[in-house]
Design a protein that fits this description.
Number of strands: 2
Number of helices: 14
Strand order of the largest sheet: 1-2
Distance between the termini: 67 Å
Radius of gyration: 23 Å
Helix content: 55-70%
Mean pLDDT: 93
Length: 366
């Protein structure tokens, strides 16, 4: 196709596309001992893309009004061609995203990739995690079911424990004294516009940091040595590494396929896993369904608030823990990254995971 080559040559002479692709694909080298945990970033990008596309498709039929929201979701599920699949991809996909995000953050911590000079990369990634929780919370209310109504009521009530400004925060979140149309309007605006806009900016900054500093070398093997303090910008090159394309892209595609299979397996074989019966009943502000609990990724927080004698203390402890984790690279200044050389950190790491799982299981059965 001579005409296609002429078009490509015309664009390439003016924009240097071939040079960009060459430098960022075949000539971009990654550590030879890079492992499968590094692919979770690509998995998240694929899942975020699905959320973006399915979210736009759902907006065609969804009506953000308390009188029509539940019925509009039922129309999507029962009347719109493949509407059920699009909604499940969006709703179940959000849970798979949280799972992949947690695994991604845990792998980064285990290999100490959050340490200098990647402090800003970690902070941006942590903010993306918090923002993802915010998008899950705001999206939870939109179906206007019994589950979403009462779960939002409970979630917003916890803000009342903030000293001095608690009641004002609750009224601001709800747009009034009770969860109602102002709440739905605010959550809808945040879910489809406010949070995605901030999320996109954070994601661009996070990817810029990753590309600018270079991929961190896994701290394993006899060739690894801790690096000394940095006094100027330094891009981590990997001489003798593997090309990003096609070698590493193949790994990315394989792990992305695994997560897509997991997502479709839940949708087709266990669609009720993330949808208890109250999710299929319209919201009724006068009837509180029994056993209302938050999503699985908020159960640890839910149970923590029940453990402490005061919810103020529980909120404060959680706030301190989240802030400490976000700022961890600024406290953890040791250049050592090998897990075998960091027994205290690994012990705290394992205890933290056990605490998260234990509180979540306890919260589920309590």
């Amino acid at each position: 196709m001579a005409w296609k080559k002429r078009i490509v040559d015309f664009v390439d002479v003016r924009l240097g596309i071939r040079d960009i692709l060459q430098k960022n694909l075949t000539e971009y080298l990654l550590p030879r001992n890079i492992n499968v945990w590094y692919t979770l970033g690509a998995v998240l990008m694929a899942l975020f893309a699905i959320q973006f596309v399915t979210g736009i498709l759902l907006l065609i039929y969804y009506i953000p009004n308390t009188d029509e929201a539940f019925n509009s979701v039922q129309i999507i599920m029962n009347e719109v061609p493949s509407g059920w699949l699009i909604r499940y991809l969006h709703a179940v996909g959000a849970n798979i995203i949280v799972l992949a995000l947690l695994l991604h953050m845990l792998s980064v911590l285990f290999m100490s990739a959050h340490k200098r000079p990647r402090e800003l990369t970690w902070v941006a990634g942590f903010l993306i995690l918090l923002l993802s929780f915010g998008m899950c919370l705001t999206g939870y209310l939109l179906p206007w079911s019994q589950l979403s109504f009462w779960a939002t009521t409970v979630a917003t009530e916890s803000s009342a424990e903030i000293p001095m400004v608690g009641d004002a925060v609750v009224r601001f979140l709800r747009g009034g004294a009770m969860v109602g149309q102002p709440t739905l309007g605010r959550f809808f605006a945040l879910h489809v516009m406010g949070f995605p806009l901030i999320f996109g900016l954070l994601l661009i900054f996070h990817l810029f940091c990753v590309r600018r500093a270079g991929v961190s070398r896994p701290p394993f093997g006899p060739e690894y040595e801790p690096r000394g303090p940095l006094t100027e910008f330094w891009h981590e090159h990997h001489k003798g590494g593997i090309p990003f394309f096609p070698n590493y892209v193949v790994k990315d595609v394989a792990v992305i396929s695994f997560f897509m299979a997991l997502l479709l397996a839940v949708i087709f074989f266990a669609p009720g896993l993330f949808f208890p019966p109250a999710a299929f009943e319209p919201a009724d502000p006068f009837v509180t369904p029994p056993g209302i609990k938050p999503e699985w990724y908020f159960l640890w927080s839910y149970q923590t608030l029940k453990i402490f004698p005061s919810e103020v203390l529980g909120v404060a402890v959680q706030g301190l823990a989240v802030t400490f984790l976000m700022l961890l690279p600024f406290f953890d200044r040791s250049p050592e990254r090998r897990p075998s050389k960091r027994p205290v950190f690994i012990a705290c790491y394992v205890l933290g995971i056990l605490l998260f799982v234990g509180l979540s299981v306890w919260g589920h059965y309590s």
